[in-house]
Amino acid sequence: MRRGLSTSRMPIAVAVYLPEQYTRLLATAEDASDLEPTWQEWHTVFQETRQKMAELGMDLIEVTVDLDALEKYCQEQGLKNTSGTRAQYAAHLLSEQHPRQKQLQQRPPVRFKKKKRGTR
Length: 120
Hints:
Blueprint: H1 3-7, E1 10-17, H2 22-28, H3 39-55, E2 58-65, H4 67-77, H5 83-97
Parallel strand pairs: 1-2
């Protein structure tokens, strides 16, 4: 048994969005087709993913992303609004709030699995 995974929890910054800005995210994200069509659906998938990650010993640290600030960040860095950029931005914000957490910027982005819609 690997003790490292079972005894220490690994914090991971994850971008979360305000319900009133989600439509704008869908309009500006390069990967909008990979996102849930509504904030409510996105939030449900996020909650399920957070629970699964917690069971694996990983803590998702929610970092609320303001789209004005995200768009400015993308422009300044010459980046497109993608899931990887949003994850990088969330880690950047978290490291500014908690300087000792700079290593979070090095972690790969957390990707939420889109629920498959069954036909009934």
